[in-house]
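User: quick one, fold this
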Amino acid sequence: MDYSNYEKVVGIIERITHGNSCCTMVISMKVENKENETINFILTGDTTVIHNVRLRPGMRIAAFYDTSLPAPAIFPPQYQAELITALRQNQEVMLAYFDENLEAQGQSLKLNLSPMTNISTINGQRYACAPINMELLVYYTAATKSIPPQTTPQKIIVLCPYE
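Assistant:
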């Protein structure tokens, strides 16, 4: 699957309501570091929620949506959520393709793995190979100010291609 068109929004869930069907929810999220900005995300049965966490108001999350899909011209903005993950305070997450040097495209981040880095697949299974030349969901708290920024991630979720 191609994740290159995915855009990330980080914020706090304000409320969750039912959508157009019993399998659809609307999450209203207060965007982090943007005063008074709210975005609505539509969750369907196709939305991936990492670790199947039950979402609730007050939770800090990162929601990813596909920028190539049409979005209604309404206020507040509303997007179809493709992937959602819960975040701890001060935790960052990046979804990107990482090459054989564990560097994201555009020198946006370089990974330095440690024995403490938890590496798994999206369904929570241990990933036994090197996470190179793959789409990765990387969780970390601090990065250097170098170019590229470097971090030792806490957790990596490998988004394995469909076989």
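User: anything notable?
Assistant: The mean pLDDT is 94.
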